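forwarding from the other thread:

> can someone predict this with nicotinamide-adenine-dinucleotide?

sure thing
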Amino acid sequence: MKKAAFFDTRPYDREWFSKLDKSFEIKFFEEKLNPENADLAKGFDAAIAFVNDTINRSTIEALAAGGVKVLAMRCAGYNNIDFKAAYDNNLKVLRVPVYSPYAVAEHAMALLLTLNRKIHRAYNRTRDFNFSLNGLTGFDLHGRTMGVIGTGKIGQIFIKICQGFGMRVIAYDPYPIENAGFEYVDLDTLYRESDAVSLHCPLTDSTHHILNADAFSKMRTGVYIINTSRGGLIDSEALLEAIKSRKIAGAGLDVYEEEASFFFEDRSDTIINDDTLARIITLPNVILTSHQAFLTNEALKNIAEVTISNLEDFFAGKELKNEVCYCCSTDSPTTKCN
Ligand code: NAD
């Protein structure tokens, strides 16, 4: 029977992957996949990994040397993989392109509502029998302008949610959709006119730090920033400065550029040695969630089903519809061969 080594296992992963029928065996490891522990997968046919695993050339070479032929990512994003190394080592990479765009879009709106209506502060106050409303004033979302960067699967659902609140939506995407039902603008216009900006684009070389000091300087004073996509889209130091200078009224962050050392772990008994993260967390107008936007039962079920069917297809020699590769088919997300 084929065997798969499952890295970065959490109880909810084990629950969903264990209950589904499959033709191969899974061994669960709690460690995040990285160059130091990749040899745990020695003798396995497949490795199953997640967003914050370190899948660089060393990891890939160790996996391949141990006999692993396929890497099944149980997520949509793949910015943590060295695709050239995967290609060089004949390691196929599969992913789950969609599991629940609703989960992420709804979480983005939850962050905005919490920030704007200060629900996090009200919750803490009333638990302490403090029923004062001072400092809890928000504004009506109705009639306000939401700027959306990236109008793919999640962005489009988020836009519908915003429109349901009576917001005007403006968006930027280098690949706009036709008959969109909202207005596309350039980034400068989006920065100038938005009361809140939400990121729904992938992390690539061209989107790294798309929100930086220059972008913040072009925004309205009092804007909210929402990021449920990838931490590297925001220059965290610049964000901190813009919040301290009161340019930005608050930020709802589900991701952080240096999250890999912290997120998904209980670090409550350690001193956080990332000063930017530590400072951001102290701010009353920042809500930080630990990359949990995807975390719904529907998404977990889809992730498990698609990951298993991706591997079943690979083991059966079938067409790999969810392959991401360095230079293969023309519709692959990373087609460039150099
Ligand atoms: P998608 O591929 O459907 O859409 C991404 C969109 O971004 C596309 O329309 C693309 O044209 C656009 N884009 C590309 N470059 C851009 C740029 N420079 N500026 C603006 N837009 C650009 O992806 P999706 O399913 O909507 O997911 C979006 C992102 O959400 C993913 O890349 C991933 O990083 C993130 N995500 C986060 C979680 C979470 O739990 N927090 C879960 C799933 C996905």
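The chain has a mean pLDDT of 95. thats all i got for now
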